[in-house]
């Protein structure tokens, strides 16, 4: 069996040991210098000059001044050295602390964005599921006395977009008076598009609708709005176009219209043979129709 490899010692412990070693060396150096100084002085006067210890206090004062005059610069140098070392060490530790704090702040922000994204997607899928449930309800064709009946959406479509009519404003009025059975569907659809516009960046800062509309549309917005658009069938798309056909900025449906334009929501609308939709493009900017072959922005 091979011997276990010892774990590497943390860098902090290595640096601490090195620092303690340097301090001990400084103490040893000061002690050795002092000892050598006293030894040389004693040897010179005691053994070379055969002098005894003096009882004159003034001579001992002179001796003290001599020793102090030599040791003081050395001690002052060591004190200055360790003072500068302590400043460098403190700056190093401060820089390391700031780095750790910056990394912690970055990780916290990333975690917050991840959590916000999860909340956004959970809410988005919940709203989409609700829209799908309502869609099934209004497109369901009930059976009465063994006879299949028209769905609520089909009934509304036939009431609003009557054949042979060219008056879009009349269709708009008729839509808003007869959409009771389907209004919930269009309200939820509006809330989903509004939710995408206001929350797609997964940030917590407050933003009003006008500010959101002034921002350049992001790929994230388009991605989520395309998913929503795929859940809306053709009858609902035509009725949606009629529902939001307004040029009046004070109209309660004007924001809805702006969302349709922002997300090219009418790109796949089919207007062939629909005389009541012949001038629908006059109520919208071309951006609402995306790359539609006749109503959209030409490539």
Entry keywords:
two-stranded antiparallel sheet, mainly alpha, 299 residues, rod-shaped
Helix/strand layout:
Layout: H1 11-48, H2 57-139, E1 143-144, E2 147-148, H3 152-160, H4 168-178, H5 183-199, H6 209-214, H7 219-229, H8 234-243, H9 254-262
Helix pairs in contact: 1-2, 2-5, 3-8, 5-7
Instruction: List segments where confidence is low: pLDDT < 50 over at least 5 consecutive residues.
Output: none
Spatial extent as radius of gyration: 43 Å
> Structural class, judged by helices and strands?
mainly alpha
Helix content: 55-70%
The overall strand count is 2
Q: Could you tell me the mean pLDDT? A: 82
Spatial separation of the terminal alpha carbons: 72 Å
Strand content: under 5%
Number of helices: 9
Order of helices and strands: HHEEHHHHHHH
Give a short account of the largest sheet: 2 strands, antiparallel
Describe the 3D structure.
With 299 residues, this protein is an all-alpha fold. It is built from 9 helices and 2 strands; from the N terminus they run H-H-E-E-H-H-H-H-H-H-H. A hairpin with a 2-residue loop joins strand 1 (143-144) and strand 2 (147-148). Helix 2 packs antiparallel against helix 5 and helix 5 packs antiparallel against helix 7 (219-229). The chain is rod-shaped.
């Amino acid at each position: 069996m091979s011997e276990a490899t010892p774990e590497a010692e943390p860098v902090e412990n290595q640096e601490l040991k090195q620092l303690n070693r340097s301090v001990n060396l400084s103490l040893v150096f000061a002690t050795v210098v002092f000892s050598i100084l006293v030894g040389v002085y004693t040897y010179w006067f005691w053994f070379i000059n055969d002098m005894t210890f003096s009882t004159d206090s003034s001579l001992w004062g002179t001796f003290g001044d001599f020793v102090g005059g030599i040791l003081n610069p050395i001690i002052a140098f060591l004190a200055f050295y360790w003072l500068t070392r302590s400043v460098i060490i403190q700056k190093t530790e401060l820089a390391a602390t700031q780095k750790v704090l910056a990394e912690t702040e970055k990780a916290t922000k990333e975690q917050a964005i991840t959590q916000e994204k999860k909340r956004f997607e959970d809410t988005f899928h919940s709203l989409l599921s609700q829209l799908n449930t309502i869609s099934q309800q209004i497109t369901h064709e009930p059976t009465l006395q063994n006879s299949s009946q028209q769905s609520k959406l089909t009934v509304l479509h036939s009431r609003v977009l009557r054949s042979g009519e060219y008056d879009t404003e009349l269709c708009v009025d008729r839509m808003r008076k007869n959409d009771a059975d389907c209004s919930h569907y269009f309200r939820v659809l509006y809330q989903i598009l509004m939710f995408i516009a206001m929350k797609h960046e997964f940030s917590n800062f407050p933003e009003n609708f006008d500010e959101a509309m002034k921002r350049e549309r992001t790929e994230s917005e388009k991605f989520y709005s395309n998913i929503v658009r795929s859940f809306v069938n053709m009858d609902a798309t035509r009725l949606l176009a009629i529902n939001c056909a307004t040029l009046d900025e004070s109209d309660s449906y004007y924001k809805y219209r702006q969302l349709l334009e922002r997300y090219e929501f009418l790109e796949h609308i089919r207007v062939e043979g629909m005389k009541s939709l012949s001038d629908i493009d006059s109520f919208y900017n071309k951006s609402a129709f995306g790359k539609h072959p006749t109503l959209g922005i030409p490539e």
